[in-house]
Specification:
With about 575 residues, the protein is of the alpha+beta class. The chain contains 17 helices and 27 strands. It has a 5-stranded mixed beta sheet, covered by helices on one side.
Length: about 575
C-alpha cells in the first residue's frame, strides 16, 4: 500500500514511495530517524548527518514519507562518514609525529649544552694549574711590577690615602667563548626546527621512478596534459562522462544505471562536475564522454563542436588548455542507431561501437599479436590468452571451472547457495537472475524493456539476448569450428554435440523407450513423439506421432492419397 512502512528483516522499516531529503528523488527509501543494522552495527541517518556535516535536518517528526533517505544517498553518507574518520585518524597521527619530532630536538639540544659545559670547565681547570706546568709565578709578578709601575717624580705631591674599593674580577675569556658557541648552537637548532616544521606542513610526495628515456618522459607529460584538459573541459561544459557495461549506461558519479541516454544526461546534470569529476576520474585511463550537448557553463554561448569550445574557453575565459588531441573517447549517445564521432560509421549497439573506437583511440598494443585496446585491464586479460598457464578457478563443490574469482563467487552464490545476487538499481530488491529483475523493472517501476530485432520480427526483454540473436542468426559469428569437417557453431556446446557424430558416441538417451542419440536436439524431437501427435489425417480422425506412420496410414486406408501439408 502506498506510503506504508514495510518491515525488512534485519535492516529496518522501508517507505515506498518516500521523498529522499538528500536528493529529492521519490522512490523506495529508509526513515532518517529510525535505527538500522549494517555490517553488524547500528546506524541512525539523522545522527550521521550531525556527526559528518554538523547540522540537524528539520521537520523530522512529521510524516515518515517526507523524512526519508534513498539507498544511493545512504551509500554516499557512509562514505562521507568514513572519510571524516580517515581525516581525523590522519590528523591524530600527524600530531603524534610532530610531538615526537619536537621532543627529539629538545633532547639533542640538552645534550649539546652539557657537552659545552664540560669543555668550558676543562679549559678553566687548565688556567688554574699553571704552576703545575713549570711557570714561576713569583718571577712573573716581579716582571709585571717592574714594567707596569714606574716611580713617581720628586716634585710630585704626596699621594693621600684613599680607601680602595675592590672591583669584582672580570670574567675569563673562556666564558665569552662559551656564550658564542651556545648562541651558534641555538641558532642552528632553531634553523633545523624551522626546516622540520616546513617538512611536516608539506605533504611528502611519493617517489616517482625516473624516466628511462626522453620518449618515456614525453609519454608521461602527454598523459598529464590530457588529464588536465579533460578536467577543464568537463568542468566548464555540459558534456556527460559515463561508464558502461554491455549496452547499459552508468552515472559517472553515483553509478546509477540507465538504458536510455536521455535519462542518463538528465540525471548526470544534477551533479556538479567541479566538485566531483576531478576526484573520480582515473589517471591514465581514458574516460568515455557523451558530447551530444557541449555549450559553455561560464556564459550563455551555444557550442556544438568540441574544437570550437576549446577555442572559446581559451580566448573568452582565459582558461589554459594544452596542445593535446583526443583527451577522451567521444560519443554521441542515441536510443537507436549510434554513429562514430570520428568516421561517421553506424552501429546498432553501443558494445559494437565501443569495439570500433579502438581503431581511433587504441593506444595499448599487445606485443604478441599486435591487437589494440583502450584500457590496460582489457590488455592484461588478452595477454593471458597467449599464456599456456591455465587460469581456471574450479568450484570446490561441483568442480566446474570458472574464468575468474568473481565468476566462481556468482556460480556458488546462485547455483549452490541459492542467493539473490542481481540488484535492482532503482530500489533495494534483489533477484536470482537478470530476467527476474527485468520483469520487476517492467511491473514495479514501469520500465519499457522490449528490444525488437531490426532484421526480423523477434522481440526480447533483454538487450544482451537480442545481441546474441543478431550475432548468431544475422551476423553469423561462428567461432567454434569442427576439426574434422567444415561446420562452424556459435556455442561450444553445439560443437561438442556435433563431434559425437564423428565418434559415434550417443550420449543422449530417451527415458521412455531407451533410444539414444548423438545430439540433444535429436533427442528432443524424439521425446515429442511420445506425447505429441502432430501428424493428423485430413480424411479421418487418426493422428500419429511420426511422419512415416502417417504415410503408411494414407497408403493402406485411403488408397495412397498424398497430403502435401506435411512434406
Amino acid at each position: 500500500m502506498e506510503g506504508t512502512e514495510v518491515p525488512k528483516k534485519g535492516k529496518g522499516p522501508i517507505v515506498d514511495p518516500g521523498l529522499c531529503r538528500a536528493c529529492r528523488s521519490i522512490k523506495k527509501c529508509r526513515i532518517l530517524t529510525a535505527e538500522y543494522e549494517w555490517m553488524g552495527s547500528k546506524e541512525v541517518y539523522s545522527d550521521m548527518f550531525v556527526d559528518v556535516f554538523g547540522f540537524i535536518l528539520s521537520h523530522l517528526d512529521g510524516d515518515d514519507k517526507d523524512s526519508c533517505i534513498c539507498a544511493t544517498c545512504v551509500l554516499r553518507l557512509r562514505e562521507a562518514k568514513a572519510f571524516r574518520h580517515q581525516v581525523l585518524r590522519s590528523e591524530e597521527a600527524f600530531l603524534e609525529a610532530r610531538m615526537d619530532a619536537d621532543n627529539e630536538i629538545e633532547i639533542k639540544s640538552e645534550v649539546k649544552t652539557e657537552d659545552l659545559d664540560e669543555i668550558d670547565s676543562d679549559s678553566m681547570e687548565g688556567t688554574e694549574d699553571m704552576d703545575s706546568k713549570g711557570v714561576d709565578t713569583e718571577e712573573m709578578e716581579s716582571k709585571v711590577s717592574s714594567c707596569s709601575t714606574p716611580e713617581p717624580p720628586e716634585d710630585m705631591p704626596p699621594i693621600q690615602a684613599v680607601d680602595i674599593v675592590e672591583e669584582p674580577p672580570a670574567e675569563p675569556k673562556e666564558v665569552e667563548v662559551k656564550d658564542e658557541l651556545q648562541l651558534a648552537l641555538e641558532s642552528r637548532v632553531s634553523k633545523l626546527k624551522d626546516k622540520l616544521d616546513q617538512m611536516l606542513d608539506k605533504p611528502v610526495p611519493k617517489e616517482k621512478p625516473q624516466p628511462k628515456s626522453k620518449k618515456k618522459q614525453q609519454e608521461v607529460d602527454h598523459d598529464n596534459m590530457a588529464y588536465l584538459n579533460t578536467v577543464t573541459i568537463v568542468n566548464n561544459s555540459y558534456v556527460i562522462p559515463f561508464h558502461n557495461r554491455i549496452s547499459n549506461y552508468y552515472c559517472y558519479y553515483c553509478k546509477d544505471q540507465f538504458t536510455n541516454p536521455n535519462e542518463l544526461r538528465e540525471h548526470t546534470l544534477q551533479h556538479d562536475p567541479v566538485i566531483l569529476f576531478e576526484d573520480t576520474v582515473e589517471y591514465k585511463k581514458i574516460p568515455k564522454i557523451d558530447i551530444t550537448r557541449i555549450d559553455c557553463r561560464l556564459c550563455d554561448t551555444k557550442i556544438d563542436d568540441l574544437n570550437a569550445f576549446k577555442e572559446h574557453i581559451t580566448s573568452a575565459h582565459n582558461l589554459k588548455l594544452y596542445p593535446v588531441a583526443n583527451e577522451f573517447i567521444k560519443f554521441k549517445l542515441t536510443q537507436d542507431n549510434l554513429s562514430c564521432t570520428e568516421c561517421g560509421k553506424s552501429f546498432p549497439y553501443f558494445d559494437s561501437l565501443k569495439k570500433h573506437m579502438v581503431e581511433h583511440f587504441g593506444t595499448l598494443v599487445c606485443d604478441v599479436c599486435g591487437a589494440c585496446f583502450l584500457e590496460r585491464n582489457s590488455l592484461r586479460t588478452h595477454i593471458r590468452t597467449h599464456s599456456k598457464v591455465e587460469t581456471n578457478f574450479p568450484c570446490e563443490i561441483c568442480g566446474k571451472n570458472l574464468k575468474s574469482k568473481y565468476s566462481r563467487y556468482l556460480h556458488i552464490a546462485t547455483v549452490h547457495e541459492k542467493k539473490a545476487t542481481v540488484n535492482c538499481y532503482k530500489c533495494e530488491s534483489t533477484f536470482m537472475s537478470y530476467a527476474l529483475r527485468n520483469r520487476h523493472l517492467i511491473e514495479v517501476h514501469g520500465d519499457k524493456r522490449t528490444f525488437p530485432c531490426k532484421l526480423c520480427d523477434k522481440v526480447y526483454n533483454r538487450r544482451k539476448t537480442l545481441m546474441e540473436h543478431n550475432r548468431r542468426n544475422h551476423q553469423k559469428v561462428l567461432r567454434h569450428e569442427c576439426s574434422m569437417c567444415d561446420q562452424r557453431f556459435y556455442l561450444p556446446s553445439r560443437l561438442k554435440e556435433h563431434m559425437a557424430t564423428h565418434s559415434g558416441q550417443r550420449s543422449f538417451r530417451c527415458e521412455v523407450c531407451d533410444k539414444s542419440y548423438p545430439r540433444l536436439q535429436s533427442l528432443q524431437e524424439h521425446v515429442r513423439t511420445h506425447s505429441e501427435k502432430r501428424y493428423k489425417c485430413h480424411l479421418c480422425v487418426a493422428a500419429f506421432t511420426q511422419h512415416a506412420n502417417y504415410k503408411s496410414h494414407l497408403r493402406n486406408h485411403h488408397h495412397g492419397y498424398k497430403d502435401t501439408s506435411y512434406t
